[in-house]
Amino acid sequence: MDSQQQAQTAALHRIEAWSNVTETQVQTLTRNRAVGQVAFSASLLASGSGHTGPFNTDTTLVFRGVVSNIGNAYNPHTGIFTAPVRGAYHFEFYVFGSGGSHDSVVGLEKNGEHVFIAQQNYSHVKEPF
């Protein structure tokens, strides 16, 4: 093979590789655009009041009272939110221990890693009622 043909073959391989990368990027952008907006709002109980726990091991809390689930990224059966697109997400929850013998602890995990934890020590809780 002469040098001109080798150069053309190398250029063709670079163009094919670039085309594959571009196609992957277009597919990702198309998928992200199709998802649109993502948001959910939920409470632990579907209705009424009650207690959750205590648990002896780490337990995924399943928020049964789904108020909204735009984009269906929250699974109300598993309690897991899966972010379908890159972006900033805001999570907010409140911890209240009504006294007793157990601390109230809740944490947020991302891909199995602790992001943050909130705890209320039962020995410092005063009954509000």
Automatic annotation (TrEMBL):
SUPFAM superfamilies: TNF-like (SSF49842). Residues 33-129 form the C1q domain. Keywords: Secreted, Signal. Coiled coil: none annotated. GO terms for cellular component: extracellular region. Pfam families: C1q. This is Cerebellin 10.
